[in-house]
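We treat protein structure as text, and this decision shapes the records that our systems exchange. Because each token names a local backbone shape, the row as a whole describes the fold. For reference, a complete record is included directly beneath this paragraph.
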Amino acid sequence: IDLGNSDQGNGDLGNSPSDNFFGPALSLGVLYRLTPHLHLGSEFSYVKMGARDKYKERGLAFTSTNGLGTVLLRFDLLPDESVFAATTAETPVFQIFVQGGVGLLLYNPHSYIGTERATNDTSFLLPERNDYPALAGVVPVGGGFGVRLTDQLRANLEGNYYFTTTDQLDDINLRLGGASANKDGFATVMLKLEYSLK
């Protein structure tokens, strides 16, 4: 089970931390070790994000709730020799890893006029398209640092950036004159707990 924060990283609105409305991110997944260095994993996540316009004179903002499913490969920089049946080696106490993968994002944005986080009283603009929630492809890349707490439990701090195939993650595209040359993206930072079944 993973807990963390998410933010809208690069889009038509905010692309700096000061313009983002950080939201919760929850994730549940599995990892299967292929080699002493390599894991294959899959995750399902809930991510909430939002941002205000980097150009204050436009006064636009958005909030979005998203479902995310990914398949990834994770590479541990330190080998885990404990995977071999004939060894007495222990899992490394500390671990640094990098990872990348592919997935699908189900996103449901709501844009509005304002510079603060949306509340129950916020009046949202008409959506730019009539098929929200919509699907987009994602390519996550990232890495992290882990500490072994017990023989079966590990705590990881992990950050990922998600490149997407959509320019409407923030529901701000047509309002600014049409398609942008750049697609939207976002980042997550999570504290993860891993439990080994072996």
